[in-house]
Structure formats: C-alpha cells, structure tokens
Amino acid sequence: MDPITAEVIVARPREEVYEYLVDIANHAEFTDHYLVQWHLTREDSYGVGAGARYKLAARGKRYTWADSTITEAVAPRLIVERGRTGKFNRNLTRAVYELEEASGGTTRVTFTLESKPKLLSDRIQEIGTRGWLKRKNKKSLNRLRSILEEDLDRGTRPSVAGGPRKPASAFRFRPGVNR
Q1: Is residue 175 part of a domain?
Q2: Is the peptide bond before 167 cis (omega within 30 degrees of 0)?
Q3: Which of 39, 76, 96, 178 could be 161's S-S partner, Cβ–Cβ 3.0 to 4.6 Å?
Q4: pLDDT in tens, 127-144
C-alpha cells in the first residue's frame, strides 16, 4: 500500500512529545479506537527494541493481528516502527513519526504508514483499507494532541504478554537436588 500520511500540531515542546511517543505502551492510549487487545512484547516499553502486538478492529477482515517494534529513535525528531500483519504475518509494515518544531513552542507531528504485501491475495485484502486507515490515523493524532495538551481522552495502557511477571528470587535450579 502506498504511504498514508496524517499530521497534527501539538502545543507542547518537541522533546515532551518525543518522550511520550518513544514509549510504545503509550500508543495504546491514543489508538485504542481502532487498535485493540494490546500486549507488549517485552517488559521495557521504551526506546529501540520495544514492541507490541495488537488487533485491528476492522469489520470484514480475516487477518487482523499485527505487531510493531521501534527500530529507530533519533531524539527528539524521529521514531520508526517496523512490523508485520496479515495472514501468517507475511506483510511488512513501516510507521514513521516525524517531529518538527513549529512556531510558538509547538510541535508538528507527521505520521506515515506504509505496508508491503507479499502476495497478490494480500494486496486484494488491502482494498478499501486505505481510506479507513487514513481516517483512523487522523483521529488518533487528534487524540494524541488532546492527551498531551489537556490530559483528556486517555485509553488504557497495555500489559506485557503472558501476564504478570514473577519477582526475581534466589532460587537456582541444581540438577539432582531440586526435584
């Protein structure tokens, strides 16, 4: 699919917007109107390597699970996520957040999403999705603005996949002793 772009101006400093966006757990707060059932892929949700798995709330689509991982983070201007979606996770996705300083201490956030379907059948599955995604991405950036400017319209933060973690203990497995 050709790149889809949406942008918004947020009345916050660029560094503050970057710090919010580089934590992938925060993405569930402003995209939960179309990306649901978020699960983090590791405990540390901040920076390069942080990832999440989620489901698109798209009617009529069969393969709606997707994942994304932050692969590049250049403070305070760029965040790149790469991921997979579709049947057998064979379609590649790329999402880019570009942050530019605007007048009066505001930040222009530009979000670009593109996908690379592997097969013709995957391209056919994407028909009609472009306009839907463009509308949902614009709404998510407006929700991002309302969260950062007014602390309104927050969704829920996701949990780590697999549930709560067991605290570290002094237990060590020793063959023959611990049966």
Answers
A1: no
A2: no
A3: 39
A4: 778 888 999 999 999 999
